[in-house]
Design brief:
single chain, 4-stranded antiparallel sheet, mainly beta
């Protein structure tokens, strides 16, 4: 008798599942699963000044009948970070917040993406996108200083820093850098700051440092310029 009752219950569940699924406008396979839904997966930000951070929170809904788990959020590069709700109950909503620093993207239309990885069978990975224009704060040419050459020979590079007409600023003091590796000086010429960086290391070796320029701008009180040094006899001979 118990066996017959069990068989009848199993048949009832098998027959009823498609009916319930149709009522919920979903498939029987998804009936007892989480379903991740992000109504707006793209955020277009208005024009922003280089140096400001862009941040946006995406709403994540669980329209399924089981807990939705966000395992991780994969971002495109180190300048992008993500915070997110790890578990979302059925019928509830959580969030994924994506942010990135705009320094170095001046004068460009930026597009950053992130991938949300979930336990939802129907949406195991969902792409998010943040896109928009970044206004240039200053024209820095070149962006990096590379001091490559042989020990004992003069190695230097000049960087031109020109404030944008829309966002003017002044550099307030002499540049700050690692005096053990290089020396630097600054002068102004026709609205452009000329930063001269000269190697001081006399032995073979590599170094990675940065130069800091203090400004009077409220958004970007500092400009940081990376310095790469490679002092090598071998490198010098290869370039001959």
């Amino acid at each position: 008798m118990k066996v017959k009752v069990l068989i009848m219950l199993c048949c009832l569940v098998a027959v009823s599942a498609p009916v319930f699924a149709e009522a919920l406008n979903t498939s029987p396979k998804e009936l007892f699963n989480p379903i991740a839904l992000i109504p707006n997966a793209t955020y277009e930000f208005p024009s922003i000044l280089e140096g400001k951070a862009v941040s946006h929170t995406f709403v994540v809904k669980n329209t399924g009948t089981a807990p939705l788990v966000i395992y991780k959020v994969q971002t495109t590069c180190g300048c992008t970070t993500a915070n997110y709700t790890e578990q979302i109950a059925p019928g509830e909503a959580g969030s994924v917040t994506i942010s990135f620093k705009t320094w170095g993207y001046g004068g460009r239309n930026v597009s950053k993406t992130a991938t949300v990885i979930t336990n939802s069978p129907s949406s195991q990975s969902i792409k998010l996108q943040i896109t928009g224009p970044v206004e240039e704060f200053a024209n820095i040419n070149p962006r990096f200083v590379r001091l490559y050459g042989a020990p004992g020979e003069p190695i230097q590079m000049v960087v031109a820093v020109t404030p944008s007409a829309k966002h003017p600023f002044r550099i307030l003091e002499q540049p700050i850098g690692n005096e053990a590796h290089f020396r630097c000086s600054l002068k102004q010429q026709d609205g452009t700051y000329l930063l001269t960086v000269a190697n001081k290391m006399t032995s073979e070796g590599d170094y990675y440092d940065k130069i800091t320029l203090k400004t009077d701008h409220p958004v970007n009180p500092e400009i940081k310029i990376r310095v790469y040094g490679n002092i090598s006899k071998t490198l010098h001979q290869k370039n001959l």
